TrEMBL record:
Taxonomic lineage from the root: Bacteria, Bacillati, Bacillota, Bacilli, Bacillales
Protein name stated in the entry: ABC transporter
UniProt GO molecular function: ABC-type transporter activity; ATP binding; ATP hydrolysis activity; ATPase-coupled lipid transmembrane transporter activity
Location of the ABC transporter domain: 338-573
Keyword terms of this UniProt record: ATP-binding, Membrane, Nucleotide-binding, Plasmid, Transmembrane, Transmembrane helix
Biological role stated in the UniProt entry: May be involved in multidrug export. Transmembrane domains (TMD) form a pore in the cell membrane and the ATP-binding domain (NBD) is responsible for energy generation.
SMART domains in the cross-refs: AAA
Limits of the ABC transmembrane type-1 domain: 26-305
């Protein structure tokens, strides 16, 4: 399915994208058809009963037949509604999975642009609107159209003059209702946007609840969220106004239509040109027509409303997935060297990296330092292809990284970030996150727990390594999160290790021990390290000094201290 062209047609294609769904849909159609035909037959039974009553010949058999008919019809209706609801839920489940799979494969730049709460809202609330459309309104319309065609054919046979009267009334009803339905389209889009904004704001507040409380900002947040609530309230109120006009107006117009039919029918009965049984059967058919017409009008309103959800999702799903057009020639394999050759990256007309060039042999280490905002973290990000450079090249063993399979490249790179990502699971879940294809022994886990000073943390937990860390690791200290992060990378055992302020959340004692552990474990690895802790630097450490996205100095730390006054001054100020 072309997700970026999301509409009712493509949604319905999901309902028949495999053989089992097609069979399921066929069963639903057959049951719906039988149910509709049974409903169309019902007025004829009533007509016969009234005719028998007029002749004083009503039999017990026909009454029992009517009761049995109504019971079977109700059972079929119940089964049909369940099957439709089940298929609708299957379709939405597949749609949500498809949307999630697409979004999660977008590049990092997409997630810089969109709020995570907004994306979650689109995945849940927008698809819920679509679910209502396909599980309730579309089946009602399809059944209704069959009912209308069947009922019109039968009422023509019953009395063509009354049929002409109905056909004259119907366009008038639709002409009055349709403009109101059109108003719901824009309202639906605005409503979904406001729901998304509200969810995003609440998620942000709850995620940062410690900062909110530490800043005594509860009242400020309450005032802030009230704006979102009021905006949503206004949109919902406007929708309610429109809907409060539509439903009574539809019912009123239909009742007027029935009164006109009943009045004309009564007039003809008095003139002996119509029987009472025929008029009653005709009125029942008219009621049967009322329901589908009402369903169609509701569908039009709901369709316009769901168009807002379609538009919102289409905007998000129109983005290109990561490397969608790339046909990879190589898998990752670092045997020789990593080379940056005049690498530049520009974002919103601002140069983030400016002609960066360096060479790093396998097993070597490079420390990147410089003022905050100078492009250090971005330099690590482009190695993982989180962002794509505008000019220059990054090669591994002479192969451009754009020709290397992205998943394979990232699997062989270990990143310890200053952001300390922790998932809501156990300590073990976090240590083994993303390592599904690697066989990790308990001995290796114990060794890493010792190396990263996590052993005491595990021992002190009731469930040990299977203890839950809370949402985003809120039961852990910053240092414990960082040690788990480091442990995960060391278990991954990648060829290239990227350390972005890897020990920034550790106390001095822990920092010293973990630095030694990392040094031992990464002796044969290629390491790029960012640090603001100048005390960590060693005399023979290779330094890349970056400022405003440019390399200002490069060389060994000891030599730069001796020969470069500007470098020496920077180190002194930072220390």
């Amino acid at each position: 399915m072309e997700l970026f062209n999301l509409n009712v047609y493509n949604i319905l294609k999901i309902a028949i994208d495999n053989k089992s769904k097609k069979i399921y849909l066929a069963v639903i159609i057959i049951i719906s058809l039988i149910f509709t035909l049974a409903s169309l037959y019902f007025p004829l039974i009533i007509k016969n009963i009234i005719t028998e009553l007029e002749k004083n010949k009503v039999s017990v058999f026909i009454i029992c037949y009517l009761i049995l008919f109504l019971i079977l019809r109700s059972v079929m209706e119940s089964i049909n509604e369940y099957l439709i609801a089940k298929l609708g839920n299957i379709v939405i489940k597949d749609l949500q999975q498809n949307i999630y799979d697409r979004i999660v494969n977008y590049p990092i730049s997409f997630f810089d642009e969109y709020n995570s709460g907004d994306l979650s809202s689109r995945l849940v609330n927008d698809t819920e609107v679509i679910k209502d459309l396909i599980t309730f309104h579309i089946p009602k319309v399809i059944n209704g159209l069959v009912m209308i065609v069947g009922a019109v054919c039968l009422i023509v046979l019953l009395d063509w003059k009354l049929t002409v009267l109905i056909l004259l009334i119907s366009p008038v009803i639709f002409g009055i209702i349709f403009p109101l339905m059109k108003k719901l389209e824009n309202t639906g889009e605005i409503q979904q946007n406001e729901i998304s904004n509200f969810i995003s704001k609440t998620q942000e507040t709850f995620k940062n609840i410690r900062m909110v409380k530490a800043s005594t900002a509860e009242q400020s947040e309450s005032k802030s969220i009230s704006r979102y609530i009021n905006n949503l309230f206004k949109v919902n109120l406007y929708e309610s106004k429109v809907m409060s006009l539509v439903s009574p107006l539809v019912n009123l117009l239909l009742i007027f239509g029935l009164l006109i039919i009943a009045g004309y029918g009564a007039y003809r009965i008095q003139n002996d040109t119509l029987t009472l049984s025929t008029l009653i059967a005709f009125i029942i058919y008219s009621f049967q027509l009322m329901s589908p017409i009402s369903s169609i009008s509701s569908f039009i309103g709901e369709y316009h409303k769901s168009n807002g959800a379609f538009k919102s999702l289409t905007v998000i799903l129109s983005k290109d997935i990561e490397n969608a057009k790339n046909t990879y020639k190589y898998n990752f394999k670092l045997e020789d060297k990593l080379i940056f050759d005049n690498v530049s990256l520009e974002f919103k007309e601002k140069k983030i990296l400016d002609n960066i060039s360096f060479k790093l042999n396998k097993g070597e280490s490079l420390t990147i330092i410089g003022p905050s905002g100078s492009g250090k973290t971005t330099l690590l990000n482009v190695i993982e292809k989180f962002y794509y450079i505008n000019s220059g090249s990054i090669t591994i063993d002479g192969i451009d990284i754009n020709d290397i399979n992205t998943q394979n490249l990232r699997y062989n790179i270990g990143l310890v970030s200053q952001d300390i990502p922790i998932i809501s699971g156990t300590i073990k879940d976090n240590l083994l996150y993303g390592l599904n294809n690697v066989s990790i022994t308990n001995f290796e886990i114990k060794d890493i727990l010792k190396s990263t000073m996590l052993k005491d943390l595990v021992i002190n937990q009731i469930d040990g390594i299977n203890s839950y860390v809370g949402e985003s690791g809120n039961r852990l200290s910053g240092g414990e999160k960082q040690r788990i992060n480091i442990g995960r990378v060391l278990l991954k055992n990648p060829n290239i290790i990227l350390l972005d302020e890897a020990t920034s959340n550790l106390d001095n004692e822990s920092k010293s021990e973990i630095i030694n552990s990392i040094s031992e474990i990464t002796q044969d690895k290629t390491v790029l390290k960012i640090t603001h802790n100048m005390h960590e630097l060693k005399e023979d450490e290779q330094i890349l000094f970056i400022e405003n996205g440019k390399i200002i100095f490069k060389g060994k730390h000891g030599e730069l201290l001796k020969n470069n006054e500007r470098y020496k001054k920077f180190i002194k100020n930072e220390a």
